[in-house]
Task: structure prediction
Amino acid sequence: MKQHYPVELHWSAEDAGWIATFPDLPGCSAWGATEADALAESQGAAAAWLKACKAAGNPIPAPSPLANDADYSGRFVMRIPKRLHADLAKSAKRQGVSLNQYVLYLLTARAAASGEARA
Result:
């Protein structure tokens, strides 16, 4: 039975491309010009990592359970400095939106700019 290891994709400005890593497989990574390229390359990298691990007689780590969006409530609590809270609330009011909507906008815009956002 084929094991499925969770893979994480990150943009690397230094490498000018996407890096795919496997949290369960230390040091296993792959590069791609696009997210799809990095993901495709990652499968070969994981297979080679597991083959080398087996050849060296090292234990093969079990894959972590895959998380999905249903595992998250969409809510988290965060403490911030009072001054920042006030500044954010004032900015939200100027924009005519709730504080929650404004902070969601800021987080989404930042994630999109860094390549971390996904549909």
